[in-house]
Structures are given as structure tokens and as C-alpha cells.
Specification:
Blueprint lengths: L2 E9 L2 E9 L5 E5 L10 H4 L7 E6 L15 H12 L5 E7 L1 H9 L5 E7 L11 H9 L3 H12 L4 H9 L1 H10 L3 H10 L10 E9 L8 H9 L6 E5 L6 H4 L1 H10 L3
Parallel strand pairs: 3-4, 3-5, 5-6, 6-7, 7-8
Antiparallel strand pairs: 1-2, 2-4
GO molecular function: hydrolase activity
InterPro entries: AB_hydrolase_1, AB_hydrolase_fold
Protein name: Hydrolase
Length: 263
Amino acid sequence: MEQSIQNHVEVDGSWVTVDVYGDPDGPAIVLIPGAMADAAAWAAVAQHLEGWQSVAVVNRRGRHPSGPLTDAYGLETEIADAAAVMRRFTDVRTLFGWSYGALIALHLTNTLAVPQLIAYEPVMAPFGAGALPDLHRAHAAADYDRSVEVALRQVTGMDAAAVDALRSHHAAWAQMRRLSPPIYAETRAINQALAPERFAVRAARVDLIVGELNQDRAPYGTSFNDVARHVPHATVHQLTGQGHLAHLQAPQRLATLVNRLAA
């Protein structure tokens, strides 16, 4: 499926863009990426989704060509942005979220009815809370190399050798650095959000996905388990041989699983 248009959606004090694949007026799946990712990072998955005539990938605020986060930014900002995007489509059948994007989708579907929600490794408080002081210092200094390092070491749990290896891949490091400016505000928003007793109460069907490599393992697998306890009506699926970055490392396999879950 090829990208057909890019929508520009005005939101409170800013704007977001949406990459649309296929027929923009057909039954749709809307994808919400998480932190350290943009719509372009999900293109390979979007191109392999076949259960919907329209695939819409949100480029959340804080990443080009969408607008700034603004001073009032918080999880409620993201929920409102996602709702504004959803209203642009006449027949949203499925809402998909990854990581922080999945948390946004879980909160949104407490107030907005959807036929199906699919969430890949959603996170919730206290995810990354211990990194907030160092992320704040890096952000205040506009030291985005440090922001990436803190995110990788203190949030994802990557060891120093692995971070140094990534740093030596200049293109990959530059991409992470480009996507790092919102990471402090986003991590703070995750940890300031109050968890409801239940998530996704207005989703008729909920499918949660965890990568096999993260099953029951900190930080993503344990945060996934925390979320799952708040979604008792969900069905849990495992993506074999993958971790948190399946959209980059195995996009076709991830798309195949999502296609199989099409309601």
C-alpha cells in the first residue's frame, strides 16, 4: 500500500501531520507511534497492512513536520490530538498504539468508542521515572546527545557498550538525536498521568501485543504486565523473536500479526 496524502490537523496551540496510505475515505486503522519515533519510522509497517483500505500514521507533535509540544503539554494534550485525528476519518475500525502511543490510545478509548484497539508494549507509570532528573538536565542544556544516552541507559536499560556501539553508527545516532527533544516532556507526561481503574472501556475489542524478548522482563515487559492488569477484557498476543523495536527490525512480521487481528 502506497502513501496517498499527508493531512495537516490543527490542534490546541500546534498541529500534527498524518501520513495516509491507501484510500483516505475507506475503513481505516489509525497508528500512534511512541517516543523516539515518528510517522516515517512506521512506514514499512503501514505499507504491509492489508486489513484496512486506509492506514493513517500520526506524526505526533514535537517531531517534524508536526508542530511544537507547547508549554501546557501533557498526556491530555496527546489524547486530544489523537481524538482530533480520529475525527478526520469517517470509518475508523481500529486504533493501534505503540509504547507511549499505546498509552495514549488506551486513555483515549476510555472516552471514545472504537471497534478495536491494538496496543504493542504499552507503558505506564512508573516507566522511566528514575531518568527524569537527568533527562531534565539534558533537555535544559539542549544536549540531545546526552538525552539519547540517558534514554537508552536509564529508560531502556541498555548497557554502556551497546550505547557506544550505537553511537558509532552515525546515521542511526543522528536519527535518535533528531527525535530526542520531546523525550523529557513525554517521559514526565507518562509519570504524571493518573491510571484509571480500567483502560479502554469503550473499545469493543482489545488486543495487547508483547514481544517475546521482553516477556516479563524489565522495563518493557514489566510495564506491559502493569498495563494488562488494567485491561481485563483484553486478549494478549506474543510476537515471536522480537522486542520493543519490531516496527524497525521486523516490520513485515509485525504487520502480518496486526493483519491477522483485523476485526
